[in-house]
Specification:
The structure holds two protein chains of two kinds. Chain A is an alpha/beta fold. Chain A has two domains: 5-57 and 120-278, 3-Layer(aba) Sandwich (Rossmann fold); 66-111, Alpha-Beta Plaits (2-Layer Sandwich). In chain A, 32% of the residues lie in helices and 29% in strands. Chain A is elongated and about 70 Å long. The model of chain A has no long low-confidence stretch (mean pLDDT 95). Chain B has eleven helices and eleven strands. Chain B has two domains: 2-55 and 118-286, Rossmann fold; 60-113, Alpha-Beta Plaits. Chain B has helices at residues 15-22, 41-45, 73-77, 99-103, 141-158, 174-180, 194-209, 225-237, 251-257, 262-265, 269-286; strands at residues 2-7, 29-33, 48-56, 60-63, 109-112, 115-124, 127-134, 163-167, 185-190, 214-218, 242-245. Chain B is of the alpha/beta class. Chain B starts with a strand and ends with a helix. In chain B, helix 8 (225-237) links the parallel strand 10 (214-218) and strand 11 (242-245). The chains are: A alpha/beta, B alpha/beta. At the A-B interface, helix 4, helix 6, helix 7 and helix 9 of A face helix 4, helix 6, helix 7 and helix 9 of B.
Chain lengths: 281, 289
Amino acid sequence: MKNMIISVASGKGGTGKTTVSTNLAFSIGDVQFIDCDVEEPNANIFIKAKINESENISVDIPRINKKKCDYCGKCSEFCAYNALAVVPNNILVFPELCHSCGGCELVCPRDAVGWNKRIIGKLEHGQAGNIDFYHGLLNVGEMQAIPVIRALKRKIDKNKQVIIDVPPGTSCPVIESVNGSDYCILVTEPTPFGLHDLKLAVEVIKHLNIPFGVIINRDNIGDKKVEIYCKNENIPILLKIPESKKIANLYSKGIALVNEIHEWNQSFSQVLTQIKKEVKL
Amino acid sequence: MKQLTVISGKGGTGKTSITAAFASLANNAVFADCDVDAADLHLIFRPEIKKTSIFQGLKIADIDKDKCIDCKKCFESCKFDAINNNIELIKESCEGCGVCAYICPVDAIKMIDRDSGFAYISESRFGPVAHANLKTAEEASGKLVTVVRENAKKLAEEKNKDLVIIDGPPGIGCPVIASLTGVDLVLVVTEPTLSAIHDLERILSVANHFKISAVVCINKYDINLENTKKIEQYCKTNNISVVGKLPYDKKITQAMVHQKNIIEFSDGKLSQDIKDMWSKLKTILSTDV
């Protein structure tokens, strides 16, 4: 059977992305797991990989040669992110705002722009049994998760079954994480907030043209509208995880469901089987 | 005028439900939903939109294929891989820097405005609300957060309100930073799970980094008492007050299904505890911060 990249996303935060992605990983066994939620990475609380490699992620930030600069202001005028400001006889660089597009260097008439590396986060790599684990950590106070996510995605091993844990939301970090996946699992809860954010997530995934299905977590806490929506839109419901004290308690302690209640192993393996059927692999 | 941001690091800990509950308790406040990616506050507020404005975030490249001479300079210069080898734009990747338009020798690329979403000013049964809708797959959510906060501030000034209550997004990155810079107090809503504790520590460092006072609320504290103790201990060590410990109560979901906040829906223990927490917050906001 061909290997796939499966991403697990949600729109709304806290619906159970990490629960689904980690349990799926354990039930499959031989996988590469990539936690792209670099703002709040939690998967390793469950995977418990021993980290044995770490790599700093840096971005390029302009370094102005003040001997050459004549404060003409062309760079600050060009910068779409307001990362450069020219004041009388000085020029200021705001590194957190810079997107490293290289525009300032291009427009500078005096060749005064060079580059410094700035560390904004790191990648960590390790193993847990036969799970090959990666996650990224954005440094506190940093704005841009994208470069860290990009670096993580360069680690994808196409010879393996890959599972990607996606950050919540619907904007740039989500697109960056999900793009290139063969299938996307959207995790939701059966509540008005869950449904509203599921619809947004569906729009994103449709826009990216990726086949997808839904897993309903904390089934029975709210109403039936998520199920009705999925039925009307012809979206497959891959699994329902009931609301249960036992499951919530395991989660709170960082214990994966499949490792404690073995019936769940079967359920999550079936999710993979169904996904493969959906994409006709 | 004071500003309070409700935030969490980890998603789904109850930010929006708690913000919505405050709406019944704060009698002179403006509300701002700054989770522009996945805004949910309006599902409880059911606001009536009074004014809509188009939000234009970053610009986007527009390639005129008739003028293009296929020199590939734009393809080579784009740091975001937003132009492919066939000189086609990949919209989702374009960050609007303008390098391609600058480098193009035949002026085949223009930077044009990009409608990235809408900002709304609304009225609700709880008072004025500023909120927004970022189009899916758009960039610049941090910028839209700033627009929502400016709208909320203006509303507060116009209507003589003394408090802005901001429902923030999850995470620690750009939109979160935009939601908390310059506010008077941050309320971090957490829960006693190892994941939430990990995220709590990160979001508190962000607040600390920007020198903003933070207090903590432990939601669903009774789902794991041992972890609740850990959070309390952590907060004590770091000199952060725990202003509320809220019990797990399914009624909060039922209230949501009925498009109500918990205070409107029930007068049980959870509602009482939220009221107690609110009076503590009011005291903190009126004194030193």
